[in-house]
Structure formats: structure tokens, C-alpha cells
Amino acid sequence: MKGTEGTTVREEDRRDDGPRRTGKAVDMCRWLAYSGTPILLDSILYRPVHSLIDQSLHAKMGVETTNGDGFGVGWYVPDKDSPAVVRDIGPAWSDRNLREIAEHVVSPLFFAHIRASTGTAVQQTNCHPFRHGRWMWMHNGAIAEFHRVRRDLALSVEPGLFPYVEGSTDSEMMFYLSLTLGLEEDPPGAVARMAGLVERVGHEHGVEFPLQMTVSVTDGVRLCAFRYSSQKRSRSLFYSTRVDTLRSLHPDVAFLREISDDARLIVSEPLGDLPGAWNAVPEGTYGVVQPEGDEMHAFEPAA
Amino acid sequence: MKGTEGTTVREEDRRDDGPRRTGKAVDMCRWLAYSGTPILLDSILYRPVHSLIDQSLHAKMGVETTNGDGFGVGWYVPDKDSPAVVRDIGPAWSDRNLREIAEHVVSPLFFAHIRASTGTAVQQTNCHPFRHGRWMWMHNGAIAEFHRVRRDLALSVEPGLFPYVEGSTDSEMMFYLSLTLGLEEDPPGAVARMAGLVERVGHEHGVEFPLQMTVSVTDGVRLCAFRYSSQKRSRSLFYSTRVDTLRSLHPDVAFLREISDDARLIVSEPLGDLPGAWNAVPEGTYGVVQPEGDEMHAFEPAA
Amino acid sequence: MKGTEGTTVREEDRRDDGPRRTGKAVDMCRWLAYSGTPILLDSILYRPVHSLIDQSLHAKMGVETTNGDGFGVGWYVPDKDSPAVVRDIGPAWSDRNLREIAEHVVSPLFFAHIRASTGTAVQQTNCHPFRHGRWMWMHNGAIAEFHRVRRDLALSVEPGLFPYVEGSTDSEMMFYLSLTLGLEEDPPGAVARMAGLVERVGHEHGVEFPLQMTVSVTDGVRLCAFRYSSQKRSRSLFYSTRVDTLRSLHPDVAFLREISDDARLIVSEPLGDLPGAWNAVPEGTYGVVQPEGDEMHAFEPAA
Amino acid sequence: MKGTEGTTVREEDRRDDGPRRTGKAVDMCRWLAYSGTPILLDSILYRPVHSLIDQSLHAKMGVETTNGDGFGVGWYVPDKDSPAVVRDIGPAWSDRNLREIAEHVVSPLFFAHIRASTGTAVQQTNCHPFRHGRWMWMHNGAIAEFHRVRRDLALSVEPGLFPYVEGSTDSEMMFYLSLTLGLEEDPPGAVARMAGLVERVGHEHGVEFPLQMTVSVTDGVRLCAFRYSSQKRSRSLFYSTRVDTLRSLHPDVAFLREISDDARLIVSEPLGDLPGAWNAVPEGTYGVVQPEGDEMHAFEPAA
């Protein structure tokens, strides 16, 4: 992305000052999105040092260091618009089916998510990623005091979409609100409108800082990632340095020769131990990974 | 109950003409409610011929002959207002924890339910019984075309109760609508108002026969059971004959000497093979099992 | 296979006279094996009338009509010797992850299995298919009185293989006995020696008819299927008619034009409703599906 | 117990120098055993600061700080010899059924266990406590290199007991070896013989330090707890100070007035924050909690 790539991760970006474990229906998680050369999921999910699966047991950053309340993986395959989404309610670290899939599925675009619930039911319909048609969505963060605003937000979901809301998380609600507000035509605009709506409804209920989010959303072609919080202290988010830059920094790393220049990872928490590989997404920012060139812009909720 | 006790179950009562397996969010199940002498759950759940647990694998009546999409058991204990509710998503027939509980828990009032989903997610929050405070609720049947009316019904739930709706079933929605409409003060009245609301909203959406239900609800003292459907072809429901009558019919049955005169079972489908033990609850009827004497009345939805 | 293809399934082949539900550790199941053109799993697992997934809820043949105690699917992909094996303990009919995988995975050779346990624990390590290296195995039937012979059979497993036995089923034990007895060099010979061993040990323990099996085993290239029982009343097994023969019988069926001449299905119970599509594997017979031409031979346990 | 009660826990007792996470089939866990006044399970399992359920997410001591690979609780009730045992494979911290049971079940003697697997399958039959008749057993630790010695140990299990071994853990094997070696007549002697056997077989396979264990076993009357390791660096174990001593130390603590003088807890890791409440079980020691007075003795494996 157009930014200050290759910089070291600074200590303040390692902070993750999300809301504390209080109230109901607060999700705090870790996630990863990949776009690039078709690759075995295993290469990203399990093989790196401090992989996402390792993080399910022992994350370094974040409020919750264990993310054992379910997981999900979603991937696109050729000739199918709609991605496969496999989710389960146990910890990722011990899930054999996830490992089997990771070792046998190749995909050019996939999401993976590990969940730490702090009250919402641990059930498949509350696991990320969420899917609607060709779209996938995953989230780390929370709508503050969700139990108080949930009804008002639910009423804002387009009635035709309402029956598709299956679970009880703030994350899925954010997805359906974004779909209601135009996600399929204009992802950044729709997410901005969703964030504006969540903040307005939160403020109406006396919530000072209604929204805390890092979100990833895709239609299988473009991948968008958002980092924002009402308090301006968003949960961590990182994107990988351009592969050609990394190759020149690390000519000996075989893995880098196997993937294309346009391969890109966006993660809650860096994987691996390659110096220069990760760049913090700045506070209040969104990025787009797409065939016509990646972009990064300021993100502001829309009224 | 005051009715025609001790009669044989007639063939037409064995019919169970519920809606077919179509559409989303239709629950078709089997359930059992017990009130009487404190008894080991096992005595009722597992030991009878054609027990509820047997029915989970091979029910005789009903649209679905397998009820393998989760189960639940709820029981009251002394010194606790709120009942214990244990639910899980696998089939009851192979669940070891259910058997352990049944073999070690004694209770004077308990519910058990086995579920056949026809589309709604198989998850703990969709399993019966549902609980709110000291109240428990379970259901067999369906709100027809629930996906079309779900939003309107959700809006009718009292906002303060809305956050407690955890799952996505019509059954839980009926419970929270009944709570909204006065269940804690007047159970039969509240259920009648709920049924009236469901029918009105269904008719507004062009649904001819909006409601099909057998419901059991209790606060730990009184137990109410309802049999009703808009089409007047309700799913089967039976209540057990008075224990003193059964004892005189079957002086040799040891089990009958162990339970008190006021013991009462209400079931979707008869258990055991004791002649004269079961009586069909008539179409459009509700019964109340209570310390001051059981009653049976006509049931009519309230406008 | 070389046999009497294209014949109608006769009523006596529809019988499935396996041992009754008695004793511990008896598995009775349904399975399916496919070899041929790379195909979406969904085409075989879900789309046919009376598909395997339908059979999980309502099988027509067999002792158990519900197969809701877990399932598994195993498939080979290019560039990987070892197959993916995904197994879970709930019923197949409601498993969303299985459906996701089926709708997004293409494979030239796969197994699927649905389980009805009659006492052995319902756990992932007891679900089929079982895998060892590049080999996959699945089974329908039982070692009679398995709890009495289990120890002696366990001692016959090669000590180096012993630690790989993870579950408690007779089916997995048969697999490791076959591996011990040369499966990797000579599948039909090894299975014959395994069957001979099981019969000898059973007879030593006074069991009249020790073995009942239909088995499928593959290394990813050759697929072998066995139908045998000590009592000569084996559980049902069918293989599909040659695709070119079916095409000339049914020139209008589009699906038949999409698959290659060498595509072959072996199933516990016929799928679909295409006349002439299925042929009973005779009692005491095994077949081999392989690139150099399919074969069918008599099967006899080896002393 | 007769020991140096009321002493503070010293820092060296907080060490937990068990074997590292290597190899297969190594269980590392946390557990708790209670004997005394009949008490609501919740009082011990959930209410204390740093409760066992808290430890499932964040243990302070031990090799594994997360114990999310299943849990179990076993309790005795009046009029039943055999205890109830409820076990499940998800993390204890989010399990609603465990909480329901804890809030509604009263027992004078119960076990609770949270598991951290390092390779053995996460399945119900691998969860503690294990039960045989009226006996219950749970374990924290490991048989080193279990996959290498498992077969030899399995052969040492009495053939009549062999079919009862359902899972694949070292812990369950230790239980059935102890039953084989006289557990029902002489628990300390049988456990000593089991430990001697495990060490002998381990040494035969070149394992330097074959055994690491803290074990609790009971028949519903006497409760025995063992702390031992071949390396003399056993995993931590603590017993609670006599209730009358604690009462005089803490006259204001209401909870202490509700339980009887003979109430006793044995735990992997102290609960609560009451000074003087916990005493380390010394290295190579076992204790017996029993109606005729508690005892503590040196423990030595028997040849």
C-alpha cells in the first residue's frame, strides 16, 4: 500500500487498547486476510513462527491473550462466486479439521479468524467470517454496550436482509448494516456510513465511545481493511510489505520466491519473524488490496 | 385434569398434521413435562418403553421421525428459584452427559425436549427449554413462514427483554412475546395474546395458518400446557391419568406405588405401554397442573 | 467391473442382514467411494435423490435407518500423497461445514461415510474414513463380540503401528491389522489375512460368526472394495454401471456427459433413480477400480 | 492432614517443572478435589478468586497456562454408589452446561478437572475424571514417551478390565493399571505398584524419568491424593488448612462458618486469596482424606 512500508513496528502500535471485558456481546479476536498467488492455506495459517493458530493459544497483543472461543476460515476457489466458509466453536489450536483443510486447500484469497468471546454465545453462527452471497466479513473489536443498542441497530437493517442475521454478535450486525448501507456498490462508503450509524445510536444511548473495530471485507476480487475506533485508540492492524521489497531485503528466503509481487497479508498481529515485513495501518485508516494497485486512505465515519 | 381420563388414545389423536418440512426456521420436536413426587430424571427419560430418548431416534408420530438436532433438560431444585437448564446440540440418544445427569438428579418438576430442526441453526441457543428468571418454556410446532414475520415479531418484544433473545427460533420468540404480554402474571392470558399476535402478523403477511404449537411453560410451581393450531389440526399432546386411578387399574405396577397422587406427565407422544395411562389433550385446549388441583380449559387466541 | 452390469437391483440384494444392535462397539453405517473425473463432492454427496446425506437421516436398507453418530469425508488432491480427512461427531444432515466443503472441493477420488454407533463412543477418532500415510479405509459392519476379542486383536497389531490406533472401533482395528498384514503391498491379500485372523480369534472366543464387513480401501490410485461376512449374509454393496453403458441407456442425462468413462461409484445403498445404474456386488466378492481396468474376484479369508 | 499446616506457599512450590510439551499423548492439566459438608459445586468451582474455571483460561503455575482442551466434573449423591461424571471437549470457561450444573448440584465429594492436551485427541473419553464402578480418578502430569510404552502398559492391564479402556490417554491407562494392581483393596499400595510398573517399563525403553504425576482417586468415602515424579520435581499440589484453624485466623470470613471442620480441598494450584489457607503437599507424598482422620505419608513406587 502507499504508506511508509518496511518500517519496524513501533511499541505504541503494539498496544491494543480496546474496551475491557465487560458487558455482554463483546467480541475480541485475531484475524488474517490473504490475497495473492494461489497458496496452500497451511503456508500462512500454521507454518509461520507465531502463526495465527499459535495466537489462538497465546496472543502477544490485545486484551485477550487466549482466543479459544471458535474460529473460521473462508476461501475462494475458481469457478465459484461464493466463498467456502468453515467455522467451528472449539479452539483453533486443537482442531484437526482446520488443519486438514489448511493442508489440502489452495486459494488466491482467504480469511481466517480466531475468536475470544466475552459473553456472546459460543456458537457457529457467531463465528467469523460471515458471508452473504459473494461477500465475506470479519471483525476484531466491539460495539460498546451492544446489548443496549442492539435493538435499534437491528431495526436499521434492511427488512429483506433481516432474516439472514443468524447469530447474536455485534460483528455480524455491522456486516448487515454495511450491506444495508451499500456495501456491494461502495465498500468504504458503506462502512463509513455503518460506523456513523453505530456512533449516532451509541451516543443516543449515552455511550461515549461506541465503536472499536478492525474489519476486513471482500467480494473475492477487492479486499478492504479498516482500522478505526471512536476513542482513536484502535486495536492493532498490520499489512505486509511489498513482496519485491522483501525479496531484496531477504534474498535467501525461499518462500518469498514462490509468491507473486502482488501478494498481500493483513493481520491483527504480525506473523513470522522477518524484519521489515510488517507495517502498522495508521489509526483511522482503510486500505484496499486490488488488481489495479493497492491504496490506503483516511477513514472517517459518515454522518 | 378434569376431562375424560383413562380413555384409550384414539387413532385420530395419533395424527400429527403439522406443516411440512419447508421454509426456514421451522422447529418440529418432542417434549415431556413432569410434575409430582421428586423423582430421578432417569425414571421418566430413559426407563419407560418408547421413552423420550428412544423417540429421539425413532418417534412414531409426527412429521419428523428423527429428532437428532439437539436436546435440553431443565429441572428445579430446592432452595433455587431458577431452574438448571442443560442443552446440547448433538442427538440425545448418544449423549453421555444427559444420561449421567438423568441418573443422578432428582427433581419435583422438570422439562425435557428433543429437537428436529428444518433449517434453523443447530446451536445451543436454539435448544429448548428456554429460561428467563424462574420461568421455563418449550415448544413443538412452528410459526409458519417465520422468516417473513420474524422482524415484525421481534419488534413486538419489549425492548428491555430484547437483549435476552439469544437464538433464532420461532419458539424462543414466542416465549419472549409471551413474557412481553404478561406471562409472569397470567400465563394462559399471555399465551393467548401471543397466539393472537402471531396470527395477526401472519395474516398481514398473507400466511393462511400462522401458528402450530404445543407449548409447556412453568414458573416452578404451576405447569401450563397448550395445544393449538390456526388450522385446528394441532400436533399431538397427551397427559397422564391420575396416579390413583392408574394404581387401581394396575395394582401390580411397582412404579405407581412410588409416586404421589398428584404426579403428572404431559408428553408429545405417550411413553411406556400401560393401558389407560394416557389421554389426548383436545384440540384448542390448555391445562394447568398445580397444587390447588389440575384444570383443563378451552384455548382461544386473544385479539 | 467384470460382472453382470446393468441389471436391476433384486429385492434380495436390498436385504441387509447384519448382526442386530447388541453388545458394545458395533458399527453399522453407510458409505460411498468415488473414483473418476475430478468432480465437485457436492455432485455425489448432496445432489442425487436419496443421497448419502439423505441416508444419514433416513436410510432404506440396513439395520439402522438413522446414521447420525458422526461422519467423515476424505479426498485426494493433486500434489499431495496423503488425503484430506474431515470428520465430525454430529449428524451429517445438519453439518454446515460438510456442505461447505462439498460445494467447494473438487477431487478425482474420495470417500464419504456416515456412522451409526451402537455403543462405541461418538468421537472424532471413531469416525471413518481412517487414514495412515497415503491410505484411507472405511467400513460398514462389525466384528461380533468385539469387546471380547479386542485385546487379542490389539496384540496382533504390529508394535510400530500400535501407537497410531487412536480410537476404539473394530473398524480402525481392522485397518491396522490389514496394515500389519501387508496392506501396502497387496491389499486383497492383506484384507483376506485380516479377515482370517478375525475369524480365528473370534472362533477361539466361541463366536460363531465373527465378521461382517463391507470395506473400502485406497492408496489414492487403486480403490478396492470388499463384501464379506462369516455368515454369508453380508451387508449390501453396489457398484455403478460403466458410464458409457449408462450414457447409451440415458442419452438425455446431462450429468453422464460430464464424467469420464472410467468414473465409478461404490456404495452401501444406491443413490439417485437412474434405471440400470447399480449392480449388487455378490456375496464374498471384492472389486478393484484402477487405471489398468476394473476387476472383480471372489473373496475368501486367508488362514 | 498431619503436616506443617497454615504455612505460606513458598516460591519454590510455585514452580512446576514437569516435562516440556514434546512427544505425543502428554496431558498437563489442573484439578481440584473436595470432601466435606455437602456444598454447591459453584462455591468452589466458580466463586473463589482465581477459581479453577479462571485457571482454564489463565493458570499461573505450570507448563501450560491455558487449559482449554476439555474438562470434567464428577460428584457423588446420596443413595448412589457410582458418581455422576460430566465431561466435555470445549474449554471450561465458556461452557454453559458446566455452570448450570455447578449452580444446581450439591455434593459432599466431588472432582473437577481442566485439560491441556499436547497431542492426544481432544475427545470426551480422554477427559478426566475417569470412572470405574464407584471409583473416580484424575491426573495431572504425564507418562514420558507414552507412545513408546503404551503397548507394553496396555498388555499389563487385566484382560477383564481391558475393554473398559475407552480413550487414549496415559492418565486413563494409569487408572486401569492401578485397578489391575489392587486399587479397590489398597489404594496407596496399588498406586505405588502402578508407579513402579510405569517406571520399570519406561526404563526398559530407555526413558530416564518415566513418570510425572499428581493423582486424585476416591471411592466416594476416602479420598487419596498423590504427588510424585521420577525426577523428584513433581507438579504442584496443595491441600487446604483445617477449617477450624482457618476460622480462628479469619473470624470474619462467612464462608468458613458454613462448612464443617472436616472439609478439605486438594488442588493443583491455590484458589482464593485467604492467607494461610494452603499447604504444599511435599515431593513424594500422598495424603488420605477420610472420616477417621486425615493422614499424610511418604510415597515410593513399589517394585
UniProtKB/TrEMBL annotation, chains A, B, C, D:
The keyword Zinc-finger does not apply. Its EC number is 3.5.1.118. Residues 1-22 are annotated as: Disordered. Gene3D superfamilies: Glutamine Phosphoribosylpyrophosphate, subunit 1, domain 1. Signal peptide: none annotated. It comes from the Bacteria. Keywords: Glutamine amidotransferase, Hydrolase, Transferase. InterPro entries: EgtC-like, Gamma-glu_amide_hydrolase, GATase_2_dom, Ntn_hydrolases_N. Residues 29-303 form the Glutamine amidotransferase type-2 domain. One of its GO terms (molecular function) is hydrolase activity. Pfam families: GATase_4. Residues 8-20 have a biased composition (Basic and acidic residues). This is Glutamine amidotransferase. The lineage of its organism: Bacteria, Bacillati, Actinomycetota, Actinomycetes, Kitasatosporales.
